[in-house]
Amino acid sequence: MKKKSILSKVNINTHINYTSAGSLYTNNKLVLCGYQQNKQNSTISGFGGKKETTDESYIETAIRETLEELFNIVPNKEIIHLINANINHNKLIIQDNYYMLVYSFDDLELMLNLLNKNQITSKLYDSFPVTLSDLILNRKINNESEISHICLLPLKQNITINNEFIKDINHFFSS
């Protein structure tokens, strides 16, 4: 088992040796996930990715990747810094060279409202989502996006989808 450590918030300009970062949104019962149907095995994952530039902090990477994957946009540094200045992550989990910022669903809704007030738009939404429900239920499915669908899953390890349920879903799409 890989060793994990949890740290408190660090300044956005702190440049630690990391390779990738992401964000996790939870209410300690459920976790927000994305479905990546273009991956080899069609995967459900969190939101995150690789550091783009040598001067990009892990906080900037995590926020940028989240905005790219949730909204299919390329955010500018001002928006990234605005989000970090107004929304604090609750935990930082470090696993090897991956840094994961943990936020609450309330934090996510604050971010959505902040983006909406700053007139950020996304082709994945007719009107920019300001609630978790809007984010999940009003999303247009774009098969070319890295994340095509958004869902909630129980915050548990080793989740398995029942094969009979998979058959039910497949029958729905074939009818």
Structural class: alpha+beta
CA radius of gyration is 17 Å
Low-pLDDT runs of 5+ residues are 1-13
- Name the beta content range: 15-25%
Describe the strand arrangement of the main beta sheet, using strand numbers: 1-6-7-2-5
Name the shape in a single word.
Answer: globular
Q: How would you describe this structure in keywords?
A:
24% strand; Nucleoside Triphosphate Pyrophosphohydrolase; disordered N terminus; three-stranded antiparallel beta sheet; single chain; 175 residues
Note down, in words, how this protein is organized.
With 175 residues, this protein is α+β, with helices and mostly antiparallel strands. It has a single domain (5-174), classed as Alpha-Beta Complex (Nucleoside Triphosphate Pyrophosphohydrolase), CATH 3.90.79. It has 5 helices and 8 strands; from the N terminus they run E-E-E-E-E-H-H-E-E-H-H-E-H. The protein has helices spanning 58-71, 77-86, 105-117, 132-137, 163-174; strands at residues 5-7, 20-26, 30-36, 43-45, 47-50, 91-95, 98-104, 149-154. The strands form 2 sheets. Strands 1-6-7-2-5 form a 5-stranded mixed sheet. A hairpin with a 2-residue loop joins strand 6 and strand 7 (98-104). The protein is globular and about 50 Å long.
